[in-house]
Each structure stands twice: as structure tokens, then as C-alpha cells.
Amino acid sequence: MKARFGRRVASVVLAAACGASLLAGCGRPPVPSRAVQQFTSAGADPEAWALVPAGPFPMGRDGVETVIPQDYEIMVTPVTNAQYARYLEEALAASRVRVQGGRVVGPYPGDPFGGGKHEKAYPAGDYLHMPLADPATRITFDGRRFGVKPGYENHPVTMVTWFGARAYCEFNGGRLPAEAEWEKAARGTDRRPFPWGDSISGAHANFYHSGDPFETEDGYSDTTPVGFYNGQRYGEFQTARAVSPYGLYDMAGNVSQWVADRTPGIHYRFLRGGSKADHGYDLRTWSRNSAVPEYASPNVGFRCVRNPAR
User: Fold this and answer.
1) Nearest partner of 165 among 150, 154, 177, 149, judged by Cα
2) Where is the Sulfatase-modifying factor enzyme-like domain (predicted)?
3) What is the DSSP code (8-state) at residue 86?
4) At 99, is the secondary structure helix, strand, or coil?
5) β-bridge mates for residue 73, sequence order
């Protein structure tokens, strides 16, 4: 892929402890909003894919022309908890993952190691995909079957590491998107800062204190079902139809999304889109963050890309 990244990489390691907005009091699980049981349907089809054509687009804050050499398809929404639980059933039966000590782990062929001063080595071996025992995880496992905590079936899967996201996409015949693929899918071929246009409000996306019905009075910010911001009204809450030029939902806010890129000498992986824990201005299409690939958070999910059928 021909791409010119004319911008400074601002890698910020995500905080993994109490600031992850799950635990209202560090160890005390929050009480979810009634909206979790009230609005359970996906606002868009999680099984749908959208075609993004090859060609140039302006990438990054400065709009550096970047060329995508091939057409690709990308999921219209992030992967949901129900989709990920179904995958775990199939992957466990196929011996593609294991459950060990309350953790889903699976093989990874390893990263090239450049010996950088702060570079961490990831040799071939098993790595964490999902910490099932963490109270933030919405996927359940009773020793035989995987399930989803009631009400969260159509919310984006969270608490999944880069390894777990990569494994899901490859198991289903796809892959994680490259950063350039993700960004073109989010903004199209113009320089808009948000997938739907030039400005953001609480009607467009789930971000920090955006006022959606899944926030609680004590400040707990939860995920929203995928496609929630589709122009429909949910009780007293009116959403805008906040889609990208290619019809994608949740390309800003709700959960940050893993992308595939690996940079020589850097072991961090990158995240795009911003999440429910970020301020609205951090949801711009060019914003990025980074974390170690074994990082799992209630604010992080993913979606996949694949080659179009011929």
C-alpha cells in the first residue's frame, strides 16, 4: 500500500486502571442505566459490510494525500458481544483458542524484534485475547458455553486485546484494517473532521458526558448498542444519523478501534475513533491513540475488513 504519513505520531499509552470508566469507585462495579435493558436492539445491521473504493484521500489533520491501492469491504458496525461470543464457541471447538485461568488465549506468530531501547519483544506463543474474569467483560463462560450479559448482546465487544481482535477477523476470513483503510472509511475523500461532517454534538456519538441515556447520574459512561446514532428517537433522546460517507456507524466514539499497523521498532498498536471515555474533540477522524497489544479496556473494540468477492 502506498501511503505517506506526513505527521508526527503521538503515542499515548492508555491508562488501564480506574480511569477506564468502568469502576465508579475502583473495585465497586457501577450500576448500569435502565437503558441497557430498555434499548437492546442494534441500530444498524452488525452483519452488513460496506465497499470502500481504491484511490486517494486526504489523511491526517493536514490532509496528506494517501493512496489506497485496492477496493476493500469494512464492517458497517463494530463487532458486537453476540458476534464475539459466537466466534469464541467456534474457535474453542476448532482448538484455535484456549480458556486458561479465566482468560481466553491463543497463538500468535510473533513480531520482528528490532532491539530498540524501549521495544518489547513478542516472540511466537500464546497471548491474551480476553480476560473473562474481569468484571468489565460482557462475555460470560460457564465452563462449557460462552454467552453475553443480558442487555449487552448488541453493544460493541470490549475487553478484547489486539491479539483477540486480530484472531476474530482472521477466523472469519478478514483482517484488521490498516490505519489508512480505517481513516478513509471514516471520512471519505474530503477533509471533514467527523464522519458525518464538520461539528459534533451529543446527538451524534457516545463520548464523555455526551448525555446519552446509557450514562448514569453518578457519571458512569456505558457503551451504546452499535448503530445507536441512526436518526431515531429513543425515549426522550433524539439521535442524529451519524454515518460516514460509506454508511458506517460508530466511526467516532462508543469504543476506540484496533487497527492492524505494526511500526518497526515500536511494539505498540494503534487505536482510532475515540471512545465513550474521550471528549468530543478527540473523536476527529485523524485522532489516534496507542497501547500495548495485550491491553484490554471497556473502551476498546474493533471491526474487520475483507477483500470484496470477485
Assistant:
1) 177
2) 48-306
3) H
4) strand
5) 51, 306
